[in-house]
Design goal:
Length: about 240
């Protein structure tokens, strides 16, 4: 017997549900506002450390203060903004501890995708496309674009696990990582050592040498983490002079 037949809804459950109907439009609007702000934070329009003005956002989007405050709460849960008492809401500047945790997540998830990849049945199209994009941006001397392509490459590496749950989990990691990249203000210095190493990982995967690909990937991630942590305090100090 199906469990739902044993536990039917209470008689007043649907009436209670109907009472919440008015929340749907507001919730949808809140989610849309949060989505707009999230995209502007991720693309660097609102940089780490920037104060998000509630009145300005209300005026620009023609929404209520309650809607903006609820959108802020979503972004706080996403770890993209923080609320400071008596000061307001600011785009987060990730800490060194945040960076260390992000790279732990990356090592675990990306390494699993590479380790379990089957070249006979798997698909490297997204990985290859990200490398092509990086080379295109390199030719244009667009190092910010190279950084974006780097995230696409590693998102595709994590995606080799073919798990929608992993993709959802890692979405937050990539968004926080974009904040870190925005703090690191010298994109050329930050990204230039790693494009060739992405090509090496890709080549090992194409050759079916998963063990070498995992080794290359993990060494890459340790080096990238250490590179960021070494330069990060000075980058944060420079950022404080720009915001």
């Amino acid at each position: 017997m199906h469990l739902t037949s044993l536990n039917p809804p209470k008689e007043d459950a649907h009436a209670a549900l109907a009472a919440h109907r008015g929340l749907l439009e507001r919730t949808s609007r809140t989610a849309r506002v949060a989505g707009i702000l999230r995209e502007l934070i991720i693309d660097g329009s609102f940089r780490p450390g920037a104060r998000l003005s509630e009145p300005d956002i209300c005026a620009a989007l023609d929404v209520s203060r309650n809607t903006v405050r609820e959108a802020f709460q979503i972004l706080i849960e996403d770890r993209l903004v923080s609320h400071e008492l008596n000061r307001g809401v600011f785009v987060r500047v990730p800490s060194a501890e945040d960076i260390a945790e992000l790279y732990i997540c990356r090592r675990v998830v990306e390494s699993a995708g590479v380790r379990d990849f089957d070249p006979e049945t798997g698909n490297l199209d997204d990985v290859s496309a990200a490398l092509d994009l990086a080379e295109e941006r390199l030719a244009a001397d667009d190092w910010t674009g190279v950084g974006t392509a780097d995230i696409h490459f590693h998102r595709a590496i994590a995606g080799l696990s073919n798990s929608s749950r992993i993709d959802e989990l890692m979405g937050g990691v990539w968004n926080e990582l974009r904040l870190v990249f925005h703090v690191m203000d010298d994109a050329h210095r930050f990204h230039s050592p790693y494009l060739a190493r992405n090509h090496e990982i890709h080549s090992a995967l194409k050759a079916g040498d998963n063990a070498t690909a995992v080794e290359l990937l993990q060494r890459y991630l340790y080096d990238a983490r250490d590179h960021i942590l070494a330069d990060y305090p000075a980058a944060v100090e420079r950022l404080s002079g720009r915001t």
